[in-house]
Design goal:
heterodimer, A: alpha/beta, five-stranded mixed sheet, four-stranded parallel sheet, 22 helices, 9 strands, globular, B: alpha/beta, 11 helices, 17 strands, 21% strand
């Protein structure tokens, strides 16, 4: 077992966001390799605090000895959930995909209810936090959008995931069209949830069911010469790490080996000389908050490399803080305080830079930090899209708030 | 395509990166996990076994990396380090011609050279009165150790409802917590005592926090480094990283290096084992700053063989395994400390087939870091010097 490689140096502890703000959590060293020695097969799980880990993977990225700290904890979390009664929030959040399917159909009503006092009371009664505005659903989801755009030798299957599909289909279409404008054929394959929310809520069977379905579909595209691209970094981590790893689904390895972060893919085309972008000026100062799971994938920060090609753009990379929302973690009332504390730490770092906008890849980071900083919040693709081939129109930068004229 | 690819995100690799980035080079750092300096005291030891590091450098064996790069290069590099740290608000005090002493958590003193201003103690450690503050429930910091070794000392335990160094460092960034702490210090009835606090006074802005406590309480306050999780070590690492990001540098946090691409006698690229598929990092010059055995740059077998873990470069080994250590473990100067990569004057690995590969930091042979207490100083000065040679190569 990998836990035996641990030399107890505590570098993981130095990187654990939860350990910093929640005294009930003993930190990744103790929750992971230390406690693993006492978790014998056939013995009941007793440590409820394993669920306080939000699976940001920072411990594992930081470990110089290659100990799979967060995976040890994840397995303990799954075992704990299997042996104990599932709270309703775990069931709901493991199945956010089905929630999305229903809620997007009834979007106007659902969006209203979730903002009403009664809706909030109901949410709190079942353990859902309402500190943050609940995500808004859209009727015209990505799955109902044009599923094939662009022409070219290079072909990608865009795994957009639940957040872009149900909550930000406009952003999904921006990314789809950006790739198409670079001379790439983009298809939006049929897909279900990547499975990460189910895994994070201790439901490995549901996660595996989702993963198997996606891997089957994506594998067919790969056979036809498509590369898979993702924009959501947590979906990306699931596709590249969990499909061949803990979920171990058929074709998982094949999917992982052919999957790219959207910016990694663009950068690759630029470096190979297949895309010759003419980046237009974007006069902005942005704080680029790196999502934990982007850091964990181990591909560097490809969007930052693209930012460095954009004239006029000042960007600051921030990769020390977790936003605290961690998918569904912060939406549970029991984690509300931890999540909020972490959000405040991350926000303080961002605000100290006095940026024009906050940029981040992850939907959860966008919701949490956009709310807490009050800054205009963009996806890296929106910044690149605004600059690509000089196609810069202020309204393209954000669907919510346009860049002030003076900044253009 | 990067001008320089730095393998190893420790103090040596990051200082090399910072120097190159300052010269306008495109630089990427690849790192497997966080570096050992996160666990350090944050102080910079240059040559801790003597009182005058710069003057006594010439007394070192001629094979020592300091002798190879020369005293001037060491001094320049240390000045560059200080300047960089100032840009990220981590001010250091100290003079490479004269060592200084700080108080340790067990009440002994440690000889070092550059000290974070928050740890600065400008008084006679032997004679003057100090009052140590600790926090209820804080493991690994026991004021009684200090009291037992030092006359003229006393201590108080504050109950702040936070029980570890990480949590405390975070809490000190909060106004209300800091205010409460300041009031508790004001209420202390220890006239004229200097106040010693474990090093938890903030992670992001320790300088500001320490200054505020000093002003508000009108007392001399200083931090004592703790066991890991070490806040000053983390400040040092994050400060270097922040400075590098601000200069447009790129970092790849990854796992092992999966493969090396070469053409002729040049390294073209390295690939990192990430999730799914390897990530290729392509560059013109490469620096090996992976550290020694503890950091994973070197690996030794039971059969007395040692390997350099990235390029499989020839490693100098002092002797057979049974002669690696002295009989007395606590006596410094174990022969194994001499193990490492032998370098040429331009800090290229000796007997290496690659013309665009350089080497710096604790992986260098004959460093004997424990014996001469020169860890961070050696990392900084060989890193910056290697960077200068790389810059020359790139021209």
């Amino acid at each position: 077992m990998m836990f035996e490689h641990c030399i107890r140096c505590n570098i993981c502890t130095e990187n654990c966001p939860v350990f910093r703000v929640n005294k009930k959590f003993p930190g990744p060293k103790q929750a992971g390799p230390d406690a693993q020695r006492f978790r014998l097969d056939g013995e009941e799980s007793v440590d409820s605090w394993v669920e306080l880990c939000l699976q940001c993977k920072r411990c594992e990225v930081a470990c110089p000895y290659g100990v799979n700290v967060s995976e040890i904890i994840l397995k303990a979390q799954i075992k704990y959930r299997q042996e104990h009664k599932k709270p309703i929030t775990s069931i709901i959040f493991a199945n956010t995909y089905y929630m999305g399917l229903i809620n997007s159909q009834l979007a106007p009503a659902v969006n209203r209810i979730s903002q009403l006092g009664l809706g909030k009371t109901i949410a709190r009664a079942i353990g859902i936090s309402t500190k943050l505005p609940l995500p808004q659903y859209r009727v015209l989801t990505l799955s109902k959008s044009r599923s094939k755009v662009g022409k070219g030798e290079r072909k990608v299957a865009f795994f957009y995931g639940c957040y872009l599909n149900f909550n930000r289909p406009d952003l999904g279409r921006t990314i789809r069209d950006l790739l198409a404008r670079m001379g790439i054929e983009v298809v939006l394959p049929k897909q279900v949830c990547c499975g990460l929310p189910a895994l994070g809520n201790g439901d490995i069977e549901t996660a595996r069911r989702f993963a198997t379905k996606n891997a089957t579909i994506l594998s067919e595209y790969i056979d036809k010469g498509y590369s898979v691209v993702y924009a959501c970094t947590s979906c990306g981590l699931a596709l590249t790490r969990d499909y061949p790893g803990i979920l171990d689904v058929p074709n998982g390895k094949k999917v992982a080996e052919n999957t790219y972060n959207v910016h990694e893919y663009i950068l690759k085309l630029i470096e190979e000389g297949n895309v010759k972008p003419n980046f237009g000026k974007v006069n902005m100062k942005i704080a680029y908050h790196i999502p934990c799971h982007l850091k964990a994938i181990g591909i560097g920060y490809p969007a930052a490399s693209l930012f460095s090609m954009i004239p006029g753009l000042t960007y600051h990379v921030l990769d020390d803080n977790c936003c605290g929302l961690a998918g569904s973690y912060g939406f549970k009332t029991k984690n509300e305080e931890t999540s909020n504390e972490l959000g405040r730490i991350a926000s303080a770092s961002i605000l100290s830079l006095e940026p024009d906008a906050l940029v981040t890849d992850c939907g959860a980071c966008k919701m949490q930090l956009g709310h807490l900083t009050g800054l205009k919040t963009l996806d890296p693709a929106e910044v690149i899209n605004a600059s690509f081939n000089g196609h810069y129109k202020p309204t393209e930068v954000s669907t919510r708030q346009a860049v002030p004229e003076s900044k253009t | 395509m990067y001008d320089a690819v730095i393998i190893g995100g420790g103090i040596s690799g990051l200082m090399a990166s910072l120097w190159l980035a300052t010269k306008g080079r495109r630089v990427a750092v690849v790192s497997k996990g966080d570096p050992m300096c996160c666990l350090s005291t944050g102080c910079i030891d240059v040559l801790g076994h003597t009182d005058s590091p710069l003057k006594d450098m010439k007394k070192l064996p001629s094979s020592h990396p300091y002798r190879m790069i020369g005293q001037d290069a060491v001094e320049e590099s240390l000045i560059f380090f200080k300047e960089i740290m100032e840009t990220v608000g981590l001010n250091y005090t100290g003079d490479p011609s004269r060592n200084t002493e700080i108080l340790t958590p067990i009440g002994t003193t440690k000889t070092t050279c550059f000290v974070p201003t928050t740890m600065q103690v400008s008084f006679d450690l032997e004679e003057e009165y100090i009052h140590v503050i600790s926090f209820k429930g804080l493991k690994d910091f026991y004021p009684s150790y200090i009291i037992s070794r030092k006359k003229n000392a006393s201590f108080s335990i504050f109950d702040m409802d936070v029980y570890n160094t990480m949590g405390l460092a975070h809490a000190f960034e909060e106004k209300a917590f800091l205010g409460r702490f300041i009031r508790m210090i004001r209420d202390l009835e220890v006239p004229n005592a200097k106040i010693a606090i474990p090093a938890v006074l903030g992670l992001r802005s320790p300088g500001r926090i320490t200054e505020e406590i000093r002003m508000e309480t009108e007392r001399d306050i200083f931090e004592i480094p703790t066991l890991p999780p070490s806040i000053p070590g983390l400040r040092l690492f994050r400060g270097l990283k922040k400075a590098f990001f601000e200069k447009g540098g790129h970092i790849y946090w990854g796992k092992e290096i999966a493969s090396i691409e070469k053409s002729g006698n040049k390294i073209e690229a390295i690939t990192l084992a990430g999730e799914g598929k390897p990530t290729r990092v392509h560059g013109k010059a490469f620096l090996l700053a992976t550290g020694s055995f503890i950091s994973g740059g070197l690996y030794a077998t039971r059969e007395s063989k040692a390997y350099e873990t990235v390029f499989d470069l020839p490693v100098y080994m002092p002797d057979k395994r049974h002669k690696w250590f002295n009989d007395d473990f606590f006596k410094t100067g174990h022969p194994i400390e001499r193990a490492g990569i032998q370098a040429t004057e331009s800090l290229r690995p000796k007997d290496s087939e690659y013309e665009n590969l350089f080497v710096s930091g604790s992986i260098l042979a004959f460093s004997e870091i424990m014996k001469y207490q020169c860890g961070h100083g050696l990392g900084i000065s060989t890193g910056v010097t290697a960077a200068k040679h790389m810059d020359g190569y790139l021209k």
